[in-house]
Design goal:
The chain is an alpha+beta fold. The protein folds into two domains: 210 residues, Murine Class I Major Histocompatibility Complex, H2-DB, Chain A, domain 1; 110 residues, Immunoglobulins (Immunoglobulin-like, Sandwich). The protein contains six helices and 21 strands. Strands 2, 3, 4, 5, 6, 7, 8, 9 and 21 form a nine-stranded antiparallel sheet that branches. Strands 10, 11, 14, 15, 16 and 19 form a six-stranded mixed sheet that branches. Strand 17 and strand 18 form a beta hairpin. The relative contact order is 0.19.
């Protein structure tokens, strides 16, 4: 569906640093006239692993990991359910407000919010962020450093002035992202360390539709999500005519990622190409050598397989977000790392 982008997970460089950056992120998505999809969905994730879910069909906040209950007080789920219900009404109103700003009426429209924090367990450096999007575009974001809002489009200026005038709430947000969110992130990481700190080796396969089409190297079933899927030509790193896919979640808590190589039959005959997969925390590299055209161990790709995988991912994650076309003005603000409430936060009215 146009305008809907699957959740994109951050990728870190491998074999360059031992530190781990942990993250706590919440994704709120409200939609209008999207068939077979809830009007409102909330997903909470720790280190890319879904741990809480709410949607307008069930009307309940539910845990997605056993360990999350250990970090939650007895009233946690009731409190979150109430907050998410309130945000559901706010988001429904926000869609109508923004549609008016853009002189739109019916049709498919999406309002989204992503907020959360990150913590480097080696340096102690933390980051916090809150970003809002509309129909696949950045709409407005909170700047922790200035405690002001950034409006990248004219239709958001009204919202910026409205939110900037509430200085007390902006100070509260800064405290939340620099302290409360970080405290809960550390708590979740501690309780979920048996899951979040594990490593799982990938399964790597090569696919090709025809002998003249691009070759896909697909790695799946690995954990954590920090991965590099790259190509080598005659033993040297090869970046020409290479397209890198996104890291996507599987339904079992592991991840998948693909990289696509365009190579002519002549180059393939005269050179040795291989796909190299590196997963952070696993010393071994996983290598698949691209065979000669005469060989039969490159699996023909079935038309629709990639699309099917993406549909499965969308169902599992239950959330959509916008692809960032420009990060200018939306870089998380670094703070120093300095038992609080981490209930679902009320969404601001646009």
């Amino acid at each position: 569906m146009k305008g809907i982008i699957l959740l994109v997970l951050g990728i870190g460089l491998l074999h360059t640093a031992s530190a781990v950056t942990h993250s706590l992120k919440y994704f709120y998505t409200a939609s209008s006239e999207v068939p077979n999809f809830p009007e409102f969905v909330v997903v909470g994730m720790v280190d890319g692993v879904q741990m809480v879910h709410y949607d307008s069909n069930s009307q309940r906040a539910v845990p997605k990991q056993d360990w999350v209950n250990k970090a939650a007080d007895p009233q946690y789920w009731e409190r979150n359910t109430g907050n998410f219900k309130g945000s559901q009404q706010t988001f429904k109103a926000n869609i109508d407000i923004v549609k008016q700003r853009f002189n739109q009426s019916g049709g498919v429209h999406i309002v989204q919010m992503m907020y959360g924090c990150e913590w480097d367990d080696e340096t102690g450096v933390t980051e916090g962020f809150e970003q809002h999007g509309y129909d696949g575009e950045d709409f407005i974001a909170f700047d922790l450093k200035t405690t002001k809002w950034i409006a990248p489009m004219p239709q958001a200026v009204i919202t910026k002035h409205k939110l900037d005038s509430n200085t007390a709430n902006n100070e509260y947000k800064k405290n939340y992202y620099t302290q409360t969110c970080i405290d809960w992130l550390k708590k979740y990481v501690d309780y979920g360390k048996s899951t979040l700190m594990r490593t799982v080796c990938p399964s790597v396969s090569l696919f090709q539709k025809t002998s003249s089409s691009l070759v896909t190297c697909h790695a799946t079933g690995f954990y954590p999500s920090d991965v590099m899927v790259s190509w080598q030509k005659d033993g040297q790193d090869h970046h020409e005519d290479v397209e890198y896919g996104e890291t996507l979640p599987n339904d079992d808590g592991t991840f998948q990622k693909s990289s696509h190589l365009t190579v002519t039959p002549e180059d393939r005959k005269n050179s040795k190409y291989q796909c190299v997969v590196q997963v952070k925390g696993i010393k071994e590299d996983f290598i698949k050598v691209l065979p000669d055209l005469d060989a039969a161990n490159v699996v023909p790709i079935i038309v629709g397989v990639v699309a099917l995988l993406l549909v499965v991912v969308a169902v599992v994650v239950g959330v959509v977000i916008w692809r960032k076309r420009s990060k200018k003005g939306f870089v998380p603000t670094s703070t120093s790392d300095t038992d609080s409430d981490n209930s679902g936060r009320a969404a601001p009215q646009i």
